[in-house]
């Protein structure tokens, strides 16, 4: 009888052990899944052997952003074609004489970072609004689109290849264009007031190795310029970047990395100076977010990455931004047209715009033009360093 009890008890032991094992496996999978979910962002950047090109992508990438390639196209219907606002209004007659003269003297190539999926959703709205004020407008993509037109660069598409696309874009410009003074890089959701850009540039020389934009502190000793807000290279800087920086071993050779950080590193290697783009009151001109995020106090959390990155002291509220502001980022198509109307068409009756007299003297415009002069405006940058 004892042997029978022992004989029949063995299967029971095996069943209990198997049940315990299964429960342990299920618990282990659940625990591992929970742990990974909580700490997912930390595992992404774990590196056994850190690269000399590495930086914390999670702390770098804009948590405020819609992200390049993400859908911030607003509610705009892709089939809608916007008609131009009538220019036959007395309020606009001869108001842009200075701007048109500056356009002849300060030649700016604007190249727009875009992708095939954004040609209709975003890029065409840049062309219909602020892009037409550039001397030359180029759309850099990976697929040719004659409606823009876009240039098909020999690089893979996607956020992980923006640095590769940036390198190819500047190489293309350096090879195909000679008659220009500056090159502006912007995204397909950046809005730029090109006239204010040229006004700022009257204080600089395209023969100097300089670049300007919204200046950030980390990763590069002299700082680097935000890609979304748009950054500007002088003709000499483009030459140095393509001919000297790109072949340099310390300039990142693969296509990975954040394009604005990487170009900042490469430009510093070849003596291109990051300059101060603020106005004479110390107010910013290039902005990495839409206007309301800078104008409305308390919009961003004090621990938001922007406050740690920004190179110069800034304030929130109406005094955040220069009266000659140049760019805003994350502007969807709807607001491209809103800004276009507010900046270029809406006029408070009886209020005239003052123009820097030093610019008038440089341009030697006719006295009979209806330009109002003032001695109060100057275009000196805050530190110009």
TrEMBL record:
Q: Which residues cross the membrane?
A: 16-36
For membrane topology, the record states: Single-pass type II membrane protein
Q: What is its EC number?
A: 2.4.1.122
UniProt keyword list: Disulfide bond, Glycoprotein, Glycosyltransferase, Manganese, Membrane, Metal-binding, Nucleotide-binding, Signal-anchor, Transferase, Transmembrane, Transmembrane helix
Q: Name one GO cellular component term.
A: membrane
GO molecular-function annotation terms? glycoprotein-N-acetylgalactosamine 3-beta-galactosyltransferase activity; manganese ion binding; nucleotide binding
Q: In which pathway does it act?
A: Protein modification; protein glycosylation
Predominant location: membrane
Annotated compartments: Membrane
Q: Which cofactor does it need?
A: Mn(2+)
**Source organism's superkingdom?**
Eukaryota
User: Pfam families in the record, alphabetically?
Assistant: Fringe
User: Any idea where the Fringe-like glycosyltransferase domain is?
Assistant: 112-274
Stated family: Belongs to the glycosyltransferase 31 family. Beta3-Gal-T subfamily.
Q: What does this protein do?
A: Glycosyltransferase that generates the core 1 O-glycan Gal-beta1-3GalNAc-alpha1-Ser/Thr (T antigen), which is a precursor for many extended O-glycans in glycoproteins.
Q: How does it assemble?
A: Homodimer; disulfide-linked.
By its UniProt entry, which PANTHER family does this protein fall under? BETA1,3-GALACTOSYLTRANSFERASE, GLYCOPROTEIN-N-ACETYLGALACTOSAMINE 3-BETA-GALACTOSYLTRANSFERASE 1-RELATED
- What name is this protein filed under? Glycoprotein-N-acetylgalactosamine 3-beta-galactosyltransferase 1
């Amino acid at each position: 009888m004892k042997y029978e009890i022992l004989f029949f008890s063995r299967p029971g032991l095996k069943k209990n052990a198997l049940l315990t094992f299964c429960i342990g496996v299920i618990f282990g999978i659940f625990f591992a899944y929970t742990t990974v979910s909580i700490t997912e962002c930390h595992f992404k950047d774990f590196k056994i052997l850190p690269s000399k090109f590495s930086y914390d992508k999670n702390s770098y990438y804009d948590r405020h952003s819609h992200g390049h390639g993400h859908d911030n196209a607003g509610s705009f219907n892709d089939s809608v074609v916007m008609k131009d606002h009538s220019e036959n209004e007395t309020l606009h007659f001869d108001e842009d004489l200075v701007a048109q003269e500056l356009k002849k003297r300060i030649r700016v190539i604007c190249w727009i970072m875009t992708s095939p999926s954004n040609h209709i959703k975003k890029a065409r709205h840049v062309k219909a609004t602020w892009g037409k004020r550039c001397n030359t407008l180029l759309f850099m993509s990976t697929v040719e689109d004659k409606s823009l037109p876009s240039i098909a660069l020999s690089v893979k598409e996607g956020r992980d290849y923006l640095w590769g696309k940036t390198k190819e874009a500047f190489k293309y410009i350096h090879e195909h264009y000679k008659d220009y003074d500056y090159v502006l890089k912007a995204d397909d959701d950046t809005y730029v007031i090109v006239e204010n850009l040229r006004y700022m540039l009257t204080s600089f020389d395209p023969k100097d190795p300089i670049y300007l934009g919204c200046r950030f502190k980390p990763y590069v000793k002299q700082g680097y310029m935000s890609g979304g807000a748009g950054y500007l290279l002088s003709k000499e800087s483009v030459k140095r970047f393509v001919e000297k920086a790109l072949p340099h071993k310390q300039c990142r050779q693969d296509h990975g990395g954040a394009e604005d950080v990487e170009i900042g590193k490469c430009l510093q290697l070849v003596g291109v100076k990051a300059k101060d783009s603020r106005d004479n009151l110390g107010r910013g001109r290039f902005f990495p977010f839409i206007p309301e995020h800078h104008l409305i106090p308390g919009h961003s959390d004090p621990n938001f990455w922007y406050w740690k990155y920004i190179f110069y002291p800034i304030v929130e509220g109406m005094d955040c931004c220069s009266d000659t502001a140049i760019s805003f980022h994350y502007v969807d198509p709807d607001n491209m047209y809103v800004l276009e109307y507010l900046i270029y068409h809406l006029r408070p009756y009886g209020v005239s715009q003052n123009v820097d007299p030093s610019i008038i003297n440089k341009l030697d415009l006719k006295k009979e033009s209806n330009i109002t002069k003032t001695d109060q405006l100057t275009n000196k940058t805050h530190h110009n360093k």
